């Protein structure tokens, strides 16, 4: 039996400090499953809001990369380059993971799996649904990808 996959949650943030606490907490409060939460990394892409303060509150549980703004594409690339887990679960700072997200994804992680895509719920800043039903995401990257 092989070891469970080590998952790196990487949160991409540019001026989303007002949402960042919920994004970090959603990673920390994942239901147990056949995976190891290897690390949580916040990439602060040149924020000038409360992002730094939020990161300080979580400094025991989160590695923070602060840098000048380089844009979404480079930040997403760096999410994969800076992480050390077997799998990368990118998360925009204004989003959050359902408590069963990593457990559910871990069930599909095999040596042959390269990419996991799933449905998402779209909600407003108070968590109220904006769409009646979940949808397959759109043009954003998936929430779990293989290293």
Structure description:
- This protein is α/β, with parallel strands linked by helices.
- It has one domain: Spore Coat Polysaccharide Biosynthesis Protein SpsA, Chain A.
- Helix content is 26%, strand content 23%.
- The protein has helices at 17-28, 51-57, 72-82, 101-108; strands spanning 6-13, 36-45, 63-67, 87-92, 115-116, 144-146.
- A 6-stranded mixed beta sheet has the order 3-2-1-4-6-5, sandwiched between helices.
- Helix 1 packs parallel to helix 2.
- The relative contact order is 0.23.
- Mean pLDDT is 86; it is low at 138-147.
CATH topology descriptor: Spore Coat Polysaccharide Biosynthesis Protein SpsA, Chain A
Largest sheet: 6 strands, mixed
Number of domains: 1
Poorly predicted sequence stretches spanning 5 or more consecutive residues: 138-147
- What class do helices, strands and sheet pairing give? alpha/beta
Beginning-to-end CA distance, first to last residue: 21 Å
Q: What is the CATH architecture assignment? A: Alpha-Beta Complex
CATH superfamily: Spore Coat Polysaccharide Biosynthesis Protein SpsA, Chain A
| CATH C-level label | Alpha Beta
**Cα radius of gyration in angstroms:** 15 Å
Number of strands: 6
Percentage of residues in helical conformation? 25-40%
Mean pLDDT: 86
